[in-house]
Amino acid sequence: VTLAPSHAENETRPRGLGYGARLGTAWYRLAVHPDAPLTIQTRDQLAERSADGTNAFENMLKTGFAWVRGDFTGGEGLDRYPRTPPHPLDDTRYFLSENLDLRRPGAGRPYSITLSRRHEPWYTAPSTITEVRATVDKLYVAYEDEIRGFLDDGDPSPDTLFAFPAAVVSFDVSDSDEGIALLTNGELWHKPIGTDTWTEITAGAGVLDDITGVWIVKGRVILAQRDPASAVAGKLVDLALGVTGTPAVPTYSVTPFTVDTFAADVLAVEDSGMCVLAITTDRMIRSYVPRSDAAADPPVLALQSLTPMPRGEQPIAVAHSSSKLLILTAHENVLRAYAAVQHDELTNFVIGDLTELRTWESVQIPTNPMQRLVMATRDEFRWLVTTEGEGTDLWRYDLVTTGLHNHVHVDDDHMEGLVVWQERDYTYDLHTDQLSRTSVFYEASGYLITPLINFNLNTDINWTELSIQAFDLIAGGGAQVLIYISSDDAALLDPDHESWRLALSLTSPTIDAQLVPLAGERWPKLALKLELRSWPDGAGSPRVTQVGVRGIPAAQEVVVQLPMSVADQVEAPGRMPVRIPGWGDELFDELLELRGHALDLFLVEPPLRIRGVVTQVAQPVTYISHRGSPGRLCMVEILGDVLAEDASQLGLGEPDLGVALLGVSLLGVGEV
Amino acid sequence: MTTVAQLVDSTYRRYLEPPDYQPPMGFLSTGITAGDLALTLESFALPEDRQLLRAGVLLEIDYELIRVLAYDDTNGQATVRRGELDTIPAEHAALAPTKISPPYPRVDVFDAVATNTATLSPSLFSVRSVLVSPTSAGVAPFPDDLATSIIKVTRENRDQIPVASFALVDYHPQVGGRAVLFPPYVDDMLWFEYRRRVGHPISEAATLEEIGLDPLWIPAVLAGAAGEMMIGRDVSRATQEWVSQSLEAEGINFGQRQQIGFGLLQYRQVKIEEFKREQTQQHKSITFRRTSPWKTSEGSIL
């Protein structure tokens, strides 16, 4: 914008010369009078943003913004927040948690956050545990050359015990309690449904040699065999054919059916509902479906499709629930979890929709892939992830919300096996004789880190209040619900980050809801760390149903309407008015050029500095001032933020006149 | 010694351009001679004052009015014509205040002051005494052109005995100018006590003494001069209010709708009446006599 040469620019005493406002670099005179007051209104930005109100948890109030959560079933997995467009799970997601139970509540119960129940040793086997399996009613623990069965999930008392002639390498039981066991001497033993009797399976010479794994899937006994003639050739064998005896008490014999052969070893066989899946060491997941060529023939497993994993990743485990799959892959010491879908016949039973859930680095990859690494329940997948030197975490993937949770942490670097029995998680360390399970006691402490909340504003926010609803605190238990705050991005993934500072601590069981004012917390974003601590004896956990924070944007978005003098007459203190023909037009042209420009507005009275944009320059109007002289003004509207209200920063001297004296009719909160 | 220039300054200061109502002005960057036809201004009171400099505008420096013929925005230099509107080109010093389009040129304000001084008479007069020595029998030169009538004549060497008969004439051949006639037997020095009208100053250098202006009458002169200058002008409401309040403080209310110029003239008249009453009170023992020796009823020449 080119200014007239006689325009005041670097004027340090604008008040003395009668200037009222500086727009950009030039000073202008105001024509404030009762019909054209100078107005400064705060813009109700909150109301305007209500179109964004799809999120019931982030309310825009007249007095600020509120972020409140009680439902964290979306799990972790926020890579950034807020996300545009928002992910449906974002409203219930968080950044990080440990030892908190964030599962969906039962029907009719409120969402709540409690501590997870801790894992405690339950059974000590006579020697190192080889494998653990569960049926609906029984839990089987294999160690050395014995398999022990438990019927009761109370105190561990062995129900059955069977000793084999050699140590057990691998065994499996079906839900209907049929069992198969592979011994170190190559023998294959079988336990029919409804009995506790194991008998050896006999077959022709060489038929059952070089078995590497056994599984019972869809009522079939599946064997993985390695070709003795080739170190890299394997095959999948179905023992279902050639069975004699009654179906309930079958006798497997000499003619197993070779389902498939491949240049790889089999790591795991799993039922996926429609198919039998086999994970092979050539990074494939093979899908087999029982088919028969003629109605009279019994169906045999036929290979339908091969699903390769991403390059470099070896699938090591797969689990199935409701056509949904959870696949773990390993690459060096990186473990990845994928959610996938078992497609049907239309797409040849391939595994599709592979979606990476999370990556863990520096992970101890399970040394015995034959273990059940992933467990499926009716609405969850669960698996263990052991990080070197940091213990093991039990992760949950909720099939309903698709939320991923770190449920509980166990200080054990070798925990590899997981079995779910009677609604409890049983975990075991392949290096020890210890079988642990979910206790009735709670973890001592747990935390959850919310996203950095910024209400989609790119301005500073004055954080004014924390809110919390907590129940089940115990008297004398000390601080049981704590909230820490931080504005540092690095704190999101580090619960021990130095920026976390305590802002709220609840100790009393009688105060369920708390509002705690925050003072001096002015940041563009804020994250909360909710920490729960159990009762001293671990028998109880505080329960939090809601945690929230309220903030008011610090930047005052204002609309300033300036009656700018565009008269030929120039008036100034101590001066007789002087008329400069054409001067008003020149000023108006200048103002028109400012339209749409971003600039700083300095107001002399009230002393304000506003950074914004000239949104409107109205047409000039003529008026009669109270002094009797005709004047000409045009209203200029500026939308911006108040930067400073301190007159000393503007170099304007002390404000000595009341705002109203200059016709400022409104200075405060109002809707525009 | 008060001069008329000070009365002009007072008129500006009090009415026309009070300190808080200054006209647009700048200052001469460098001094100019009477013949210079270019000048440069600096230190404008308002940045916008520079906008006033354009062809045709009159500047006032001291008593001279100067017309701008052209103005160069880049170097701030104005090409001018000197001695406009019957003013006299003169030398002006550096930093001389330069009014731009002055609403009240000083030459006019001086004229107004002069007029309002002279027209105080005949309502107001001063009384003086002078010692005169006869040049010949019955005739003595009278040294004051502003004298309007003789009040009393006394003989200096005869114990101030009044002379009964005398006359003031504007011309007598023996004197070659104004003269006083009295009986021929009066041959000693005479004291003349006479009334003196207020003179019309012809320059700002004239003193009040010279023009016969009693300092007490200055308010009437200033108000009259300011009133004359303001009549017909667009005087700002603020100035009007200020003047009105000033006058009301002195008990003079000239009405809201009356022009400020007329109000000031009315004020002048009020002051004159006031001074007149005071004068009457002061000189009530004076017996006014006709001064013509030929048509006197109080005495005769012989």
Structural commentary:
The complex is a heterodimer of chains A (672) and B (302). With 672 residues, chain A is mainly β. Chain A is 4% helix and 47% strand. Chain B has 302 residues and is an alpha+beta fold. Helix content of chain B is 26%, strand content 23%. Chain B has six helices and twelve strands. In chain B, helix 1 (4-16) crosses helix 2 (106-118) and helix 2 packs across helix 4 (218-230). The longest helix of chain B has 23 residues, at 260-282. The two termini of chain B are 43 Å apart. Mean pLDDT of chain B is 84; it is low at 288-302. Classes of the chains: A mainly beta (672), B alpha+beta (302). Chains A and B meet through loops of A and helix 5 of B.
In short:
Chain A is mostly beta strands and 672 residues long. Chain A is elongated. Chain B has 302 residues and is an alpha+beta fold.
Mean pLDDT of chain B: 84
Q: DSSP helix count of chain B? A: 6
Report the end-to-end length of chain A measured between terminal Cα atoms: 29 Å
Residue stretches of chain B low in confidence (pLDDT < 50, at least 5 long) are: 288-302
Shape of chain B: elongated
Describe the SSE topology:
The complex is a heterodimer of chains A (672) and B (302).
Chain A: H1 14-17, E1 21-23, E2 26-28, E3 39-42, H2 45-48, E4 58-61, E5 64-69, E6 96-98, E7 100-101, E8 114-115, E9 117-124, E10 129-134, E11 139-143, E12 146-150, E13 158-163, E14 168-173, E15 179-183, E16 188-191, E17 199-200, E18 211-217, E19 220-226, E20 234-238, E21 244-245, E22 250-251, E23 257-262, E24 266-271, E25 276-280, E26 284-291, E27 300-308, E28 314-321, E29 324-331, E30 334-342, E31 351-360, E32 374-376, E33 380-387, E34 391-398, E35 404-410, E36 415-421, E37 424-429, E38 434-442, E39 445-449, E40 461-471, E41 481-486, E42 501-506, E43 513-517, E44 522-523, E45 527-533, E46 543-553, E47 557-565, E48 569-570, E49 578-579, H3 583-594, E50 598-603, E51 608-617, E52 621-624, E53 630-644, H4 647-650, E54 667-669
Parallel strand pairs in A: 3-54
Antiparallel strand pairs in A: 1-2, 1-50, 3-47, 4-5, 5-46, 6-39, 7-8, 9-38, 10-11, 11-12, 12-13, 14-15, 15-16, 16-17, 18-19, 19-20, 20-23, 21-22, 24-25, 25-26, 26-27, 28-29, 29-30, 30-31, 32-33, 33-34, 34-35, 36-37, 37-38, 39-45, 40-43, 40-44, 40-46, 41-42, 41-45, 47-53, 48-49, 50-51, 51-53, 52-53
Chain B: H1 4-16, E1 25-28, E2 38-42, E3 58-61, E4 64-72, E5 77-81, E6 97-100, H2 106-118, E7 126-132, E8 139-141, E9 147-155, E10 167-172, E11 177-181, E12 190-196, H3 208-211, H4 218-230, H5 237-249, H6 260-282
Helix pairs in contact in B: 1-2, 1-4, 2-4, 4-6, 5-6
